[in-house]
Amino acid sequence: MERLQKFIASSGICSRRKAEELITSGKVKVNGIVVTELGTKVSFEDTVLVNNKKIVYEKKVYYMLNKPRGYISSVSDDKGRKTVIDLIHDKRRIFPIGRLDYDTTGLLLLTNDGEFANLMMHPKNEVPKTYAAKIEGKMSMDTLFSLRKGVLVEDIKIIPKQVKIKSYDKKTDTSIVKITLIEGQNHIVKKIFASVNHPVIKLKREEYGNLTLGKLRSAEYRELTEAEILDLTKKKS
Ligand code: URA
Q: Can you tell me which atom of ligand 1 is nearest the CA of 104?
C-alpha cells in the first residue's frame, strides 16, 4: 500500500506536491470514485485516474552510464542530436540526474525516480563528484594552492574538496588534474580551470559519491545495486 500522492508522483507524471494539488482539487479517482483525502492508501490492484487518465506505475530503476563524447544529457534535443537516453535500452521514463556536457565523458546516473534525482541534486546533500581534467599548460604550485583555497566563479566562491596534479606532458604542454567538487552547476569544472588560465581540453567524471565506473566501457551502463542506492541516499532524506 502506498499513499495516493506518492503513487501518482511515482508514475513520473508530476511531483508529489503537484499530486497533492491534483487530489485536493478533485482531479483524482480511485476505482471510479473521486478522492480528495491526501492520506488515502492505494495498492497496485487499484485503478487510479488523474484527469480521467490511468496512472501506470513504473518500477523504479537506477542506472550508471559511462557517457561517451557527443551525446547530450537530456531526454530530447530540439537540434536532433543524440541524447544519453538513446544509449539506454529501457522503455520507462528515464532521465539523467544532472548533466555532463556534450563533450564530457564518464559517470552519469539516470533514473525514472524524480525524488531520488532531487535528493542527489540538492546542494545540501553534497554528493562529491570527481573529475579528471586534461588542461592546457603546466599548473604551478601557486595556482594549485589558490585553487585549493577556492576561486570565484561568477561571484560564487567554489572551494574544491580536493585538487591534485596527476601528470604533465611536456610534448603537448598539457596536464592531468583531478578535482573533487560538491557543486554541480553547468560547466563548473571548465569555469574553474578557465578562471586560473588553464582551459580544459578533455573532461571525464570518474566518481560520483562512492561510485566509480569500474569496468564499464564507453557507452556501457549497468543498474545500481541496492547497496549503492542506499549508500547514495543515506543521511540525506
Ligand atoms: N563541469 C563541466 O565543466 N562540465 C561537465 O560536463 C561537468 C562538470
A: 6
